[in-house]
Amino acid sequence: MTDMPSLSVADRIWNRAALDHGGPNPGPGDHALAGLLLAHGLIMNGGVLHALEALSPREVAQACSGYRFYDLTAVASLVEGAQVELAALADSDIPDELENRLDEGYSRLVPSDAVLVEAFERHYESSPADYSRL
Q: What is the DSSP letter of 72?
């Protein structure tokens, strides 16, 4: 039987944020990461507008706070701007152009999960006290 490598503390914190919303007693970093990952997963699944339709206003705010926490302010601004544009449409049909523009904008800012991983790892390395103990 081959031993599987054990996960690093950072990997375990990431998994806790993704799978357990940051855990039972999240620190500010756990809370930020959980919100960011929830939104990112939905965006990767169905696009920016899909995420905004699936998330509560509180969850969108938490996601945007998470992006800002990790110095991804342009991503937070894109999501907040999309939220404003979506609200302005009310019950109107969503133009394909809007959906495409938002998804392309997100893809430019977050071309891969590595962008988020690097931002988290950089922050965790400099501020481990922002995360609750495992």
A: -
